[in-house]
Amino acid sequence: VLNKIDLLPGNDGELGDLLMSYQALGYSVVRATVRGEHGLDELYAKLAGRTSVFVGQSGVGKSSLIDCLLPNEALRIGALSEDSRKGTHTTTTARLYSLPGGGELIDSPGIREFGLTHLDERQVTEGFIEFHEYLGRCRFRDCRHRNEPGCALLEAVEEGQISAERFASY
Predict the structure, then answer these.
(1) Of 34, 78, 105, 119, which has the highest C-beta tally within 10 A?
(2) HSE (side-chain half, CA atoms, 13 Å) at 101
(3) pLDDT tens digits along 119-137
(4) CA–CA gap between residue 151 and residue 139 (Å, rounded)
(5) How confident is the model at residue 77 (pLDDT cuts 50, 70, 90)?
(6) How far apart are CA 135 and CA 63, in angstroms?
(7) Residue 122: CA atoms inside 13 Å, Cβ hemisphere, count?
(8) What percent of the chain is predicted at pLDDT more than 70?
(9) What is the rounded distance in angstroms from the CA atom of residue 58 to the CA atom of residue 56?
(10) Buried (b) or exposed (e) across 103-118, using 16+ Cβ within 10 A?
(11) Using one digit for the tens of pLDDT, what is the confidence trace for 12-38?
């Protein structure tokens, strides 16, 4: 979910390009804003009938979205900071909400740091869905996908089958 789209430039800028690359991989992307309620019906439809959690940095509008999706709930929502034009941190504990159409939604406190130290290399690699069809095709079974000859992932990047930017992120 990309929230606060009302704050983006007219063509969504670089962020719009990034989101399109995720959509091309098969990820579902919802562009939303609580101002004018753009995207909220689509978001609600994606949440219905399942358990979902809103996770993101402090101030991205998780609670504001929930407030619009569940208007009968009383959430603490901070105003935009005049200095940074970012939201202020207000959610301090995770909270579970029942959706009227079925399903649950968890509002989580904003995250300040993100790390992957609890994952091993294989788990990180498998987190890139576009890598799946190439995994196990490398010349060497213990390929680390760095500069080994016969690496299927590196070959896929060279052939344009895997985005060079995504591979660099990996």
Answers:
(1) 105
(2) 11
(3) 998 999 999 999 999 999 9
(4) 6
(5) very low
(6) 39
(7) 3
(8) 89
(9) 6
(10) bebebebbeeeeeeee
(11) 778 888 899 999 999 999 999 998 878
